[in-house]
Design brief:
49% of the residues lie in helices and 15% in strands. It is built from 16 helices and nine strands. The chain has a domain of 160 residues: NAD(P)-binding Rossmann-like Domain (Rossmann fold, 3-Layer(aba) Sandwich), CATH 3.40.50.720. It is globular and about 55 Å long. A seven-stranded parallel beta sheet has the order 3-2-1-4-5-6-8, sandwiched between helices. It has a two-stranded parallel sheet with strand order 7-9. With 301 residues, the chain is of the alpha/beta class. It binds NADP nicotinamide-adenine-dinucleotide phosphate. The site of NADP nicotinamide-adenine-dinucleotide phosphate (NAP) has 24 residues, from α1.
C-alpha cells in the first residue's frame, strides 16, 4: 500500500514512518524542506516536499497515495491547513485518511475549535476516515521538564490534582500503523482514543520518577498566571503558550485528561507502556549529570 505521511518529521510521523516501512508498505514522507526530504529517502521511504499552507504542493504526493496520515502542529491555522489537505485528498482519489486528533477534552477552547474545522471537512468528504486520538503524550509532557528535574529536583505545572492517562508516543504510532493497515471500511468514522494504562496526578508522576531514579522529585503546582510567567522566563515564546502548553494544563486541572481506554490492547493485543517503564527507558534524561552536581555543590557552598 502507498501511504503518505504528513508530519513525517514530527513526534508521531517520524515513528510511524519506521513502523510502516518495516511492514512492506511504500511510504511517502512529507516535509517542507527539500534537504530533509532527501535525508528521509531510503529503500522503503521516499521523502517528498509539501506544505500544508500551499495545498497545490500536496497534489502530486496525494495522487500516488492510497492512504494519508495527517498530523500537523498545534497552531492557530491547524483547521484550515488540515481541511485543505482533506479536500485535496478527496480530489486526488485517496481512499483512507487517518487524522491525529486527541482524547484530552478541550471542549470549546481554541485548539478544539481548530480540530473541529478539520473534522467537519472529513464529515463532508467521501473519504474513509479515522481519528486517532492520543491522550497527553509522555514525551511532550515530561521531556520539557528534564532540565528543572535534573537541576532543581522539581517539576512545574498548573495541573492541580487533575489526573492524566499518559501514553507513550511509540504506542500512539503503533496504534496508527495498525489503523492504516486495516480495512478502511471497518475503521471508517471511528475516533480511536489511545491512552496509557492508568491516570495519574503530577504528584504521582513525581513519585514514580523518584522511585525510578532514586532521588526525591517534587511537583510544584502553580496558578496558570504563575506558570505562564515561569515559561516566559524560561524563554518560551508567549504567543505559543496557549495552544502548546496552557490549554492542556487547564484541561488536566478541570478533569479532562483522566480517560483510560483499552483500545490500545484491542488493537495490538498487548498492554500500553506504563509511566514507570517509560521513565526506565528515559532514565538518563532525568538523572543528575556531573555538571548539575557541580552546580548543586556550588549552590550549597
Ligand atoms: N503531543 C501530544 O501530547 C498530543 C496529544 C494528543 C494529540 N496531539 C495532536 O498531535 C498533532 C501534532 O502532531 P505531532 O506532535 O506529531 O506534530 P509535531 O511533532 O509538532 O510535528 C510537526 C510536523 O508537522 C510538519 N509541519 C509543520 N508545519 C507544516 C506545514 N505548514 N505544512 C506541512 N507540514 C508541516 C513538520 O514538518 P517539517 O518541519 O519537516 O516540514 C513536522 O513533521 C496535533 O494535532 C495535536 O493536537 C498531540
Amino acid at each position: 500500500m502507498n501511504i503518505l505521511i504528513i508530519g513525517a518529521t514530527g513526534l508521531f510521523g517520524s515513528r510511524l514512518c519506521e513502523l510502516l516501512a518495516h511492514e512492506g508498505n511504500t511510504i511517502f514522507a512529507m516535509t517542507r524542506d527539500p534537504k530533509v526530504a532527501r535525508e528521509l529517502t531510503s529503500f522503503d521511504v521516499t521523502g517528498v516536499v509539501g506544505d500544508l499552507d500551499d495545498p497545490e504542493s500536496l497534489r502530486a504526493p496525494m495522487q500516488v497515495a492510497d492512504s494519508v496520515f495527517l498530523a500537523s502542529p498545534m497552531h492557530a491555522n491547524l483547521g484550515e491547513r488540515e481541511a485543505d489537505a482533506i479536500r485535496m485528498a478527496e480530489e486526488c482519489g485517496v481512499e483512507h485518511i487517518v487524522k491525529v486528533y486527541g482524547s484530552v477534552r478541550h471542549d470549546g477552547d481554541e485548539l478544539d475549535d481548530q480540530h473541529q474545522i478539520a473534522i467537519k471537512a472529513l464529515h463532508e468528504s467521501d473519504l474513509y476516515w479515522t481519528l486517532v486520538s492520543p491522550q497527553s503524550v509522555m514525551e511532550t509532557a515530561l521531556l520539557p521538564q528534564a532540565d528543572s528535574i535534573r537541576h532543581l529536583g522539581q517539576m512545574f505545572g498548573s495541573a492541580g490534582d487533575g489526573k492524566v492517562g499518559f501514553v507513550s508516543a511509540d504506542d500512539c504510532a503503533l496504534a496508527a500503523s495498525i489503523i492504516l493497515n486495516s480495512d478502511p471500511e471497518l475503521m471508517d468514522g471511528r475516533n480511536i482514543a489511545i491512552t496509557g494504562p492508568e491516570a495519574l496526578t503530577f504528584d504521582e508522576v513525581a513519585e514514580r520518577l523518584s522511585a525510578e531514579i532514586g532521588r526525591d522529585i517534587q511537583y510544584t503546582d502553580l496558578t496558570e498566571e504563575e506558570f505562564r510567567a515561569l515559561l516566559v522566563d524560561f524563554g518560551l515564546p508567549a504567543e505559543d503558550l496557549e495552544l502548546q502548553i496552557l490549554c492542556h494544563f487547564r484541561s488536566i486541572r478541570e478533569g479532562g485528561a483522566d480517560l483510560v481506554t483499552n483500545t490500545f490492547e484491542w488493537l495490538t493485543g498487548r498492554s500500553p507502556m506504563t509511566i514507570s517503564e517509560w521513565f526506565h527507558g528515559h532514565r538518563r534524561t532525568f538523572e543528575v549529570g556531573e555538571t548539575a552536581l557541580e552546580l548543586a555543590s556550588v549552590g550549597e557552598g
